[in-house]
Amino acid sequence: MRFALSRALTEGLKRLSRAHESTLFMTLLAGFEVLLGRYSGQDDVSVGSPIAGRNRAEIEGLLGFFVNTLVLRGQLGGNPTFEELLGRLRQTTLGAYAHQDLPFERLVEELQPERHLSRAPLFQVMFVMQNAPLPQMRLSDLSFSVLEPEGGTTEVRPDAVGVGDGGRVCKGGCNTPRTFLSGRRPSVWWRTTAACWSRRWRTRGGRSAN
Questions:
Q1: Using one digit for the tens of pLDDT, what is the confidence trace for 5-25?
Q2: What are the angstrom distances between the C-alpha of 33 and each of 9, 161, 191?
Q3: Alpha-carbon distance 51 to 21, whole Å?
Q4: How many whole angstroms separate alpha carbon 168 and alpha carbon 19?
Q5: Across the beta sheet with 2-4, what order do the strands follow?
Q6: Per-residue pLDDT tens for 23-64?
């Protein structure tokens, strides 16, 4: 399911981020964790987020897969204001960035959480932001265009919300889960729920930006 934040809302969220020395990613994630807390009834939620793993100049030009997964914990206890929550999440995110070289698998090994075949350890949802521009590919006699995936293959948990910062407008999407390893299409219930979530998230963002 796709959605877009208006230009005015995107600019308002960017101003809010700058005012609190945060990034747009942190602000959007804070709003998303508020939404998760409201729906789950929990005041301690964890969200996974991938990181490129290319934090050293000597590996920037290397081919290979360096991506790692960070676990970002949102502590909603004490009924904080959005600005207070954003400050907490800023510290959490910066701390996670400082230890991004620790492999996710090693973290799971050390913490030894209770495991379930139906979901990933430590978190059940991912939040992804793509703000790096896609390079323009040019080859003689060939043209390229970006194709959106149609979801024709089985999706594996955790479910994910992705956002792209296109400059003036933020656009994103929510992966609608299939029955675990069955390949069946998402139910009408899930599509309706995902649409409701995206509306509430945009509403939450609008209130925070004003």
A1: 778 888 888 899 999 999 989
A2: 18, 12, 20
A3: 20
A4: 18
A5: 2-4, 170-174, 159-165, 125-130, 44-51, 68-75
A6: 989 998 998 888 888 888 899 999 999 998 888 888 777 888
